[in-house]
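Problem 12. The chain below contains 279 residues. Write out its predicted structure in token notation.
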Amino acid sequence: MVSNTNNLQIKLRVRRMRLSTKVAGVILGCCIASSTVATAIGLYRMYQAQVSAQGNALELGLRSKIQSFNTFWVKNEKALANDAADSALTNTMLRLADAFAQIPNAGETLRQTYIANNPHPVGQRERLLSANDGSAYSQIHAEVHRSLEQRSNGRGYYDIFLIHANGDVVYTAEKEVDFGENLQRGPLRDSGLAEAYRAALKLQPGEFFVSQPAPYAPSNGAIASFMATPLFANGQVRGVYAIQVPLDDFYAELTSIHLPGYSGSIKALSPEEVKAQTQ
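Solution.
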């Protein structure tokens, strides 16, 4: 198993502003009024206890969100391995790849057919079952698309990809502009999807790779991570099965955690960012 998910780290930037100012004022006022150090110390300890309790509540909230996220990964690690072990998925990828190869300038042609000429609006392009263009590709797409789309939606994925070993993205459920691109030489060769594809080609059956979270241009720059595993036939790697995990919702949940009297920001850092900030 090859995974970067355990490297996700959360950095908290929390400043006690209004609460600390108010408490400091109360402490000063009590000192002047009572002229006793004991009263000031007692109030300050009460303040520290309150701050500690709120800090613990913030940490518990974060731990709950992260645990939910980790559960999602563990669950889908197993699902991905089971999917890839099914020879039917590999056969589907190979059939689509063969039909893809029969189309002149296949990537551009299929993007024109399934994206530009798609009768459904952006965000609903997956509803197109077949382009009805008479091609072998569209015939196979009509056979397999609904089940793959339902798999993607049912598990909470953003998208599903079938990628031939040569780098051709021969299937996506969402029909964004990554559909039909080549991950070895196309504009997405430096993307998280390409990183996951290249890594998966070197893995053994049942292993998987997870790319670092990063903005992904075909999804309007949304933060995304990709989990990928190899597809084997007759003992050889024939392609890659990958999923796109939407991380914007996860980050939004993290940053929505709020406690009265606190202000600041919560940011997820990659291992490289953590290392840079601790040097």
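Discussion. Residues 37-85 form the longest helix (49 residues). Students who got a different answer should revisit the alignment rule from Section 12.3.
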